[in-house]
Specification:
Number of strands: 14
Oligomer: single chain
Radius of gyration: 18 Å
Mean pLDDT: 93
Order of helices and strands: EHEHHEHEHEHHEEEHEHEHEEEEH
Strand order of the largest sheet: 6-14-13-8-9-10-11-7
Structural class: alpha/beta
Helix content: 25-40%
Strand content: 15-25%
């Protein structure tokens, strides 16, 4: 598997960039990174917006270089933070003429670009560790084993144990579309021209960081009143890091909305991070999230 490294959000520390690239090789991944990306990924070139890794224009230009490369199949983001939402209006003006899917690998702010390309092109995406995350730089034995399986054989995890918050609300044993990502990033898309519009029932994966209980409740209230949420049939939670009180909020949400909420997915803003293929079909059976084999295959 070969990654095209791209920086669309915050600046990555130089040491993390170097360590991440070194770790990719050790784990068996190939990669390519342009000098431009390597430069603006780590340097402040935006005096008024110092948190952005380069201008919107350069991010779009570098993204198009990858999209116009027919051999590119995977984009790995250097880090998250914020920035992808700023790019969508410009991307709307660009024709994306690819016969092969381009899969975005990342989490946090990358959720915005992942859902945008899923909506526009139907491309599945991976909620997985960013280049600068600890999972790549210093993986645990389980993370290392999983990443090597992906790099060498293209095999993603297909089963995850779950725990339901309230057993009253069980799902039928049928397949659902699996979408989602970072909660705050999803909410940032609501009410915009890029709000996702699933046409089938789906399960929604959510994760976040530093969102106290009342903040989670505010985000969930907006989410549940959006058109995007109309066909959501259940929530599947990953890590909610440094989010005191969030479980009470989700328990209340499950009861009020009469919707099942599951926990137990090891993905988000802390270790362990086990890559999830979203835009796939899944079902829940005997407290396990199971990916349908035909939809888990990513070339």
């Amino acid at each position: 598997m070969k990654f095209s490294i791209w920086a669309g959000s915050h600046i990555i520390k130089r040491a993390d960039l170097i360590s991440g690239l070194r770790s990719l090789k050790k784990l068996g991944f190939e990669y390519e990174i342009s000098k431009s990306v390597e430069s603006y990924a780590i340097r402040n070139k935006q005096p008024l917006l110092p948190f952005l890794a380069g201008s919107d224009q350069i991010k779009i230009e570098e993204l198009l270089k990858i999209m116009n490369n027919p051999s590119a199949r995977w984009i790995l983001a250097s880090r998250g933070g914020y920035g992808c939402l700023r790019l969508l209006k410009a991307l709307d003006q660009i024709s994306i003429n690819r016969s092969e899917a381009l899969h975005i690998w990342g989490y946090s702010d990358l959720t915005v670009l992942q859902l945008y390309l899923w909506q526009r092109k139907g491309w599945s995406y991976v909620q997985g560790p960013l280049l600068g995350s600890e999972t790549f730089i210093k993986p645990s034995p389980k993370e290392e084993k999983t990443l090597k399986s992906i790099s060498h054989f293209g095999v993603f995890p297909s089963k995850f144990p779950l725990k339901i918050i309230d057993k009253k609300f069980n799902l039928p044993q049928e397949s659902f579309l699996f979408l989602g990502g970072n909660l705050a990033s999803i909410v940032s898309m609501l009410g915009t021209p890029w709000e996702p519009r699933p046409t089938s029932d789906f399960l929604l994966f959510l994760e976040d960081i530093d969102e106290a209980g009342y903040k989670c409740d505010r985000l969930l209230t907006q989410l549940s009143n959006s058109r995007f949420f109309d066909r959501c049939r259940g929530l599947v939670l990953g890590h909610f890091t440094n989010s005191s009180g969030h479980m009470g909020v989700f328990k209340s949400f499950s009861k009020t909305k009469q919707i099942p909420v599951f926990t137990g997915i090891p993905m988000g803003h802390e270790n362990p991070r086990v890559p999830l293929v979203l835009g796939s079909m899944v079902h829940i059976d005997k407290n396990r999230l199971i990916f349908d084999s035909q939809s888990l295959r990513i070339e």
